[in-house]
Specification:
There is one protein chain. The protein is an alpha+beta fold. It folds into 6 domains: about 85-300, no CATH class; about 310-410, Immunoglobulin-like (Sandwich); about 415-510, Immunoglobulins (Immunoglobulin-like); about 525-625, Sandwich (Immunoglobulin-like); about 635-735, Immunoglobulins (Immunoglobulin-like); about 745-845, Immunoglobulin-like, CATH 2.60.40. Helix content is about 15%, strand content about 40%. The chain has 15 helices and 44 strands. Strands 5-6-10-9 form a 4-stranded antiparallel beta sheet. The protein has a 4-stranded antiparallel beta sheet with strand order 8-7-11-12, covered by helices on one side. Strands 13-14-18-17 form a 4-stranded antiparallel beta sheet, with no helix packed on it. The longest helix has 17 residues, at about 205-220. It is flat and about 110 Å long. The model is unreliable at about 1-75 (pLDDT under 50). This is Hemagglutinin. Keywords: Signal. It comes from Microbacterium pseudoresistens.
Length: about 850
């Protein structure tokens, strides 16, 4: 509630002229310009919107609102006598209904369950007659808050931005995520005294907006309200507590007077210093918060003369992102501006520094470096509000360039499994898939019978629905898979990229006719079903058949690099069901011995006739340890380290004596660390410790910064007991010197004569190289080239990264008389040379 309603239940209207005259007569005594008693515009009852900082019940951001995205306020430019200009308060053309709706949605992305936020609020508005202050209103059923704000602004001639700011400063409704009904019923505090219930004529959101708009016009008229009248200096209090005092304010315009009628307090120094926060016990915040929100959201309260300007030329969704582009200029600087882009509740800052010759031609004093193109990620599918602000420099305020609701291109994959057919012993699968987060092809996983495979949907498909044109045409997939006779089940899944999840694209059945089995040179089929490990034994199960014969075939099982042959002749019900023409005798179930540590087991189906063999699959397995856990610490060595550029290659080995399995090592680069596995083959370690196997080595590449950095290794205990420090080594990386086209520098320190020569001294450095550079020494008009390569430890101490060989010390024969000596430092690459200086030297005539 605001102080404007404390002494009355209803705002004064032409129908209350008698009351107005009497009230004005009383106030003429109580409220006089400076020179009389201090103005007493209110009784001791505190107006909550006047005395509540941001975060309290009636301030702009109550607990649970979405105001975290509001930028910190700056009160630069606040003047108590001109809080807002008349023209700005009465400018009803600043926003359309659609822009108001987009603005509301940009401030709150979603409400808390069970509540309706202002962006989604609808109410039945009612008819209001036209009068001297507003043009009336035709009610509508289920009208949105944005529509009501816009239509009232047009009827009463009030800036809709003023309504938005007042809704925020009074009840926090713009950013509130769990507003109660009473906040809507008393949205602007109109007709709601601090010490009584609201006037029933003004209860409800529509009545609050229309009543407040009409009341502002009455205030602006100045007919019934003449204290705080513009053109006079008034003592305006800091707080409802009279002990807090007041200060003189020259009220410059009717709009500012209207705000004081609404909330009759000015912010004190503590309130102004607090931004949106709490000042001291004598602070009031209503008019301060009005100024804060208006300038933060809409720019200057005085008009746009000093505000940034430009054009938001593009707002669009691209795969996984939103893209905005345009240009902005601040009239107070030719430097590039900052642009803040809001996507829903998230924001990021960008610099508008791209070259725009067209803008430079139109605004030559500002230059052409004012363009911007920026992208921000799309976090969720559906409509998203995208807003762009130009950030002010100097006088003026930030400017909202525009808000647009755009459908995000993000989410889970889409597509279809279109066909699955069998032809000539092969399963032909076709379809398409894309992920709205990327225009690149995505992975598709195909499941056929008991097998699976990963494919890429990168085939040309020009027939996709038009709505996916932005993603290009490389999104088809196809696969050809050898199969036997009978029915086959196929399912396809689009693999997600970014936001979303994997999606089933469809499942189909395909049936291959049962043909007479004959030799066609086809490769074997099969799969590893399971591999289980117990100690040093792995049990390998699966199946294999050659589609060119019903007889059992051989399989080769590889354990690391060693292999053995077995027969796939055991019963396998799955094969009999899937390939009924071939029978069930195509399974294998074999025990193989595996070494300590981690080993790869691979199985190959061996062709019985022409055609290649087939890899049925590979799996990594880890042998179980047979050693007892005694809590002993690991041991090992940090063997070697080499450095190339910013990459250090380190190697060594580590063993935990309580297990023959590989263990972790932690490698530290300075204070940063990462975990690795000491599981590389080390036959030398196996020879020294035969009970542990050879899989205990580590060789890792680490990124190291410029300079000297210690790299340390620790062996990590696999069970109880401590870890072991294996050692440290220093990695030294010399930062490369990049030729940036910079000009050499140095000093021409001396030029003296020894009677027949000129002795020249100094130093020169090219900042783009540590190598010595050339210098050209001119004596009068003649020159010669020399090298600045003498040792100068003093120069090296001052420029430690450049080395010592940069000194100049030359003896130049010269005739008697006066000479002019100049030295130039010669650039060794791109960029100009540098004059180090000129000196005059007199070579004396030798004595006769």
């Amino acid at each position: 509630m605001s102080a404007r309603t404390r002494a009355r239940r209803r705002p004064l209207t032409p129908g209350h002229w008698g009351v107005a005259v009497a009230l004005a007569a009383v106030l003429a005594v109580l409220l006089v310009p400076i020179g009389s008693a201090p103005a007493q515009a209110a009784d001791a009852s505190a107006a909550r919107s006047a005395a509540a900082p941001l975060g309290t019940a009636s301030a702009s951001a109550p607990v649970g609102d979405a105001a975290a995205s509001v930028r910190p306020a700056t009160l630069e430019g606040f003047r108590a006598g001109n809080i807002i200009s008349d023209a700005t308060l009465l400018d009803s053309s600043t926003m359309t209904a659609a822009q108001i709706d987009a603005f509301l949605r940009s401030k709150v992305s979603s409400c808390q369950p069970g509540y309706t936020c202002l962006k989604d609020f609808h109410i039945n508005s009612v008819n209001r007659p036209a009068d001297a202050y507003c043009n009336g209103y035709t009610g509508a059923a289920g009208e949105s808050a944005a529509s009501i704000i816009y239509r009232v602004s047009q009827s009463c001639g009030i800036n809709p931005q003023v309504f938005l700011v007042m809704l925020q400063k009074e009840q926090g409704l713009i950013t509130h995520t769990w507003p109660s009904q009473w906040r809507y019923d008393s949205a602007l505090g109109q007709g709601c005294p601090d010490d009584a219930a609201c006037d029933p004529d003004f209860v409800g959101f529509f009545h609050q907006i229309y009543g407040a708009g009409r009341q502002l016009k009455i205030y602006m008229e100045g007919r019934y309200f003449q204290w705080y009248a513009p053109g006079n200096t008034w003592n305006i209090r800091y707080n409802p507590n009279i002990a807090c005092g007041s200060a003189p304010v020259y009220v410059e315009n009717a709009a500012t007077a209207s705000l004081y009628y609404y909330t009759p307090y000015q912010p004190n120094a503590a309130a102004l210093a607090a931004g949106y926060g709490e000042g001291d016990g004598c602070s009031a915040y209503g008019n301060r918060n009005f100024y804060n929100y208006f300038t933060d959201w809409f720019g200057s309260t005085q008009g746009a003369a000093n505000n940034p300007f430009g054009n938001l030329e593009l707002v669009r969704a691209i795969p996984g992102k939103f893209e905005v582009s345009g240009w902005v200029i601040d009239p107070n600087t030719s430097d590039p501006l900052s642009v803040h882009v809001y996507v829903g509740a998230k924001s990021a800052a960008f610099t508008a520094n791209l070259d725009r010759p067209d803008v430079g031609a139109a605004y030559p004093a500002s230059g052409s470096k004012h363009g911007f193109t920026a992208t921000m990620p799309a976090d969720a599918p559906g409509n998203t509000n995208v807003c762009v602000y130009a950030i002010n420099v100097g006088p003026g305020a930030n400017v909202l360039m525009g808000c647009t609701t755009v459908a995000a291109l993000t989410g889970s994959p889409v597509g279809a499994l279109e066909s699955a057919t069998v032809s000539n012993g092969s399963l032909e699968i076709k379809g398409w898939a894309l992920d709205p987060d990327t225009a690149s092809p995505i992975a598709v996983h195909l499941y056929y019978d008991s097998s699976a495979g990963a494919y890429v949907a990168d085939k040309e498909r020009t027939d996709l629905p038009a709505e996916y044109a932005v993603f290009g045409t490389k999104h088809g997939f196809s696969a050809t898979i050898p199969v036997g006779a009978g029915e086959h089940n196929v399912c396809a899944y689009g693999i997600n990229v970014g936001s979303g999840a994997n999606v089933e694209l469809g499942c189909m059945k395909a049936t291959a006719p049962v043909d007479t089995i004959q030799e066609k040179g086809r490769a074997p089929l099969g799969a590893i079903d399971t591999i289980t490990v117990s100690g040093k034994t792995a049990q390998v199960k699966g199946w294999a058949l050659d589609p060119d014969t019903a007889a059992s075939i051989k399989v080769h099982i590889y354990v690391g690099g060693a292999s053995a042959q077995y027969s796939a002749d055991k019963p396998h019900d799955g094969v009999a069901q899937q390939y009924p023409a071939y029978g069930a005798a195509h399974g294998f179930d074999e025990s193989v011995t595996i070494p300590a540590g981690t080993t790869t087991i691979c199985v190959y189906g061996i062709n019985t006739g022409p055609g290649g063999h087939a890899l049925l699959g590979c799996q990594q397995v880890t042998a179980g340890s047979t050693l007892p856990e005694l809590g002993r610490p690991p041991f090992g060595a940090f063997d070697a380290m080499s450095v190339s550029g910013n990459t250090a290659t380190v190697s060594g080995w580590a063993i935990d004596p309580d297990t023959d399995a590989p263990i972790a090592v932690h490698l530290y680069v300075g204070s940063s660390s990462a975990a690795y596995r000491a599981d590389k083959p080390r036959p030398d370690v196996a020879a020294a410790y035969p009970g542990y196997g050879e899989a205990h080595g580590f060789t890792e590449q680490l990124t190291v910064p410029n300079g000297t950095t210690p790299i340390c290794a620790y062996a990590i205990n696999s069970g109880p007991g401590g870890h072991t420090f294996l050692g440290c080594r220093n990695a030294t990386v010399t930062a490369p010197v990049v030729d940036l086209g910079r000009v050499p520098f140095g000093n021409f320190e001396a030029a003296i004569s020894d009677g027949s020569n000129i002795l020249v001294g100094g130093w020169a450095i090219d900042p783009d190289t540590t190598d010595p550079i050339s210098v050209h020494i001119y004596v009068d008009g003649a020159s010669a080239a020399y090298r600045a390569d003498k040792d100068r430890p003093d120069v090296a101490a001052f420029y430690p990264g450049m080395g010592v060989q940069h000194g100049i010390s030359e003896t130049i024969p010269a005739t008697p008389g006066a000479h002019n000596v100049c030295i130039y430092a010669i650039n060794n690459g791109a960029g100009g040379h540098a004059l180090l200086g000129c000196r005059s030297v007199n070579v004396a005539v030798a004595a006769q």
